[in-house]
Design brief:
alpha/beta, Cytidine Deaminase, domain 2, five-stranded mixed sheet, 5 strands
């Protein structure tokens, strides 16, 4: 494991930014999308990019998770050396695909709400969210540069946009 260059605990700014991501996840649900959202912010809390999940059928792309979309937009706007000082705030723990995107973008810090384990308890066997039991910390630990991870945080708040969303799922195939 690498020595992380960022604090391993949440500051008041971190909690505020995470609450913004959670609120955005509620907006995603209200817009008919899966209730996930992420944003990238600099050290002062200036939001560089924000995104909701766009992987929901029929019109969504399964690779368009909120984290990946927010990271891609931030990478279009800022050079890697600037991204190194940014934090990704996300309503739920990044999956391994999104963790890879975070790593390759050079973002060095992640703050998340729901853990993968808690998310699995909410989604169950829903066919639109087949979770992988691979925590983002394990993905980042395999890299050559450190990525600090803070979370899970505010899990009760982060779970609210998911309440009842995954219940009417057709049985898994």
């Amino acid at each position: 494991m690498h020595d992380a260059p960022f604090p391993q605990t949440a500051s008041p700014l971190d909690l505020d930014m995470l609450r913004q991501a959670i609120a955005l996840s509620a907006e995603a649900r209200a817009a008919g999308r899966h209730p996930f959202a992420a944003l990238v912010a600099d050290a002062g809390g200036h939001v560089v990019s924000r995104a909701i999940n766009n992987s929901m059928p029929p019109g969504g792309d399964p690779t368009q998770h909120a984290e990946l979309r927010a990271v891609a937009e931030a990478a279009r706007l800022l050079p890697p050396e600037t991204l190194a000082d940014c934090t990704l705030y996300t309503s739920a723990e990044p999956c391994c695909m999104c963790a890879g995107a975070i790593y390759w973008s050079n973002i060095r810090r992640v703050v998340y709400g729901l853990s993968e384990h808690t998310l699995l308890a909410l989604t169950g066997a829903h066919p639109e969210n087949p979770t992988l039991a691979l925590p983002c910390r394990e993905v980042f630990a395999r890299g050559q540069r450190p990525v600090a991870v803070v979370g899970p945080l505010l899990e009760d708040e982060a779970a609210r946009p998911h309440a009842g969303f995954w219940c009417d799922a057709p049985p898994a195939a």
